[in-house]
Batch of 2 targets.
Target 1
Amino acid sequence: MLFHSTRGKDSGKDFASILMQGLADDGGLFMPDYWPQVDLDEIRSKTSFIEIAKCVVPLFTASSFSQDETINIVESTWHDFEHKDLIGIKEVNSVSILELFHGPTAAFKDFGLQLAAAFFNKVLESENRTAIVLGATSGDTGSAAIDACKNYDRIKSFIMLPTGNMSEVQRRQMSTINASNVFALRVSGTFDDCQDLVKLAFKKRDFLKNNQYLLAVNSINWTRIIGQICYYFYAFNKLHQKGDLIFSVPTGNFGNVFACYSAHKMGLPMKKISVAVNNNDILHRFFSENNYSKQHVRETLSPSMDISVASNFERLVYDLFLDRDSSKSSTMFNNFPDLPIEFDQKIWKKKDDLFSSNKVNDAETTNMIKEIYDTHGYILDPHTAVAAVEAFQKSDSGNHFVVLSTAHPAKFPKVYEDLNIEISSLPASLSNLFEKDEHLHTFDADYNQIINFINLNN
Ligand SMILES: *Cc1c(COP(=O)(O)O)cnc(C)c1O
């Protein structure tokens, strides 16, 4: 299995190359050359998440790692989860909540980033090289990346945090890590400013030592998607007897939805994928009105979904709407956002087989949290609540809704204070955050200031 770019000019790459490269040379996103197929009878017969991951991950890694090497990584990579099978499933009013927040940073991003970090380290060891992780975060990516990489001496992580809509818990998860290879950089500016700085750094690369890798940890990295595909098969294993599955996914950059779509292409039967968004509704405008156009970011109660464009959407456009025609997708995305994306009606209608979308504002989000708490005593996090709205409205439709629960509510305490809901059980990883010292390095949104700091600490 090799990989190629959605924009056509970077192809024939093995797994290790696309892992270490992140974004393709032509600005596109890497895709597998074909969709490998999973044996559903085998999936049905498995009894744990790890056993299922062992069926999925090797399908993508064989061009660089032997079956044994991959299995060894899969067996050891996911660590510090508070649930014995990593994932919890709660049934609330005939809807299944797939709890993906039992990892060390209390958000689902641990699944993708721990897998990516383990493979990063494997490549670095075999090539005897080191790496810099440089990323920007508006929420949960940064803490999951830091946590996943902090135990690997060959990797130094520099994560930029904007002065924006991030909860104090989210910030402290990054600033209180006491490890000599981890640096949290507080940048006066917006998330977009931070992302621009990261993009510039990836272009210039002027701070890297000889032979050093610069690694991308945002959700365009295909290995994160692989880690996430695994839990859709896990959900199938546990829930297929309940009916045709509809996955309702709280969506920002579209990585989680694309993992769901990938699982479907690999043989997982499902009725629908519901793309749930907050007021940042670019994807809802596309799925309901055929209009994918960039607008300003709006701050909401579900900050990890506050985006202006959804990077991984390029993969769906390429695979589903354009039937993998890279010259068309290259033109389309090279011209975006100046030219919004809109398809001929016939092509746009291809979405109807698998996709629907739902937009949920802050008031509806808090109503949902309150309603489920009052009737069932279960506390939804604000992101999960966005995805739960459609599921609870339509749960009597004969299908079985699975809501992806992407974060633990304790990451967003302010929301619950305002609702007078007490979160009684904190995950261990969050319980002493407010007693620890913060180590934040403060900068203007200025390339040279930041690069000087990286140089000093590299
Ligand atoms: C990142 C994140 C999302 C959005 O996931 P995407 O893969 O970017 O669509 C949703 N909820 C939480 C809690 C997140 O951290």
Target 2
Amino acid sequence: MEVSFYTSKREYLEKKSEFQQAIDKVLENGIQTLGKEVKDLEMSVEEFSGAKHAIGVASGTDALVIASDILGFKNGKEVITSPFTFLASTSCIAKHGGKPVFVDIDEETFNIDTTKIEERITKNTVGILPIHLFCQMANMDDIMKYAKEHNLYVLEDAAEAFGMKWKGNGESYRTAGTIGDMGIYSFFPTKTLGGYGDGGMVTTNSDELAELTKIFRVHGAKEKYHYDYIGYNSRLDTMQAAILLVKMKYINKAIEKRETISNWYRDRLKDIEYIKLPKVKGDQKPVYYVFNLLCEKRDELNKYLKGNGIGTNIYYPMPLHLQKCFSYLGYKEGDFPIAERTCKEILALPIYPEITEEEVDYVCKKIKDFYKK
Ligand SMILES: *Cc1c(COP(=O)(O)O)cnc(C)c1O
């Protein structure tokens, strides 16, 4: 059996006519940047997330760079973040000369260990950049408390966190990306809300920050050809917005299905002594964008699964403090032992709404077979 890590083909076949209608409509309306569908998607995401403003941009990476620029994560200012993440969460700080200051992660959630943040705050610190990874949010109560006490901006990298909820089981929950000063989503194809190409969004509850984001995405022009800032050309593509609007109709179902699949995995894998399953900490509602294991003999298991037709992924094989591009920051091996160890043990299994129980059965059987050998 072949089980791909991710495929858009099944979704496409299920929703083919809806996608085609949506795309035809964009074409019929004629060429337009930031067209009607972009505005409709922004409104739809505002409603879904509870953010006062959602502003479509070209990618999650651009969303991070623009937000970092606006919040002043630049020119030697320090921003506290985690080294266990995708490059873009840190390169957005470094891009304009800001200084990423890393702290280690929590060994169970893989998110920033908030108990280690305060000791790294200096006169030069301007912000905290938490990343809500894989299935759960970083401890936003702690982060907002430190931010308030030390007058820092918070930029939430919610690229992977569409639909995650803090205090998610109560009435007064807040969604990922809407608690800090600014947040960002990525619509990269594999993400929980993914397009068929690149896309991203900035969220904020501040009218002023929203206005700046809108100006920055069109070259810094408040009025056409009048530039108040040196901005970007970073618009969400109208065609992608049209596709994403179709997917928004099914987003709650897709999130529920991811939860069901995660339970299939938990059920079948719970008795294997060589692996650890994800643990969700704090009062929050997870969304299973990624289903990870921590496992013994990770590389051998990974090879075995691949040899049996199963797609896997390693998020992330190397922490950012050890990457060549950040060597100038002066970190060395051993600085963040939990992040470093996690990179050696973590393995992501296939999870997407259209995967079948039979396929999950097969993946779990192969994992069991591997450890029986
Ligand atoms: C995917 C991702 C990004 C970047 O998003 P793109 O849309 O691919 O640019 C940033 N941060 C994290 C944690 C991500 O997973």
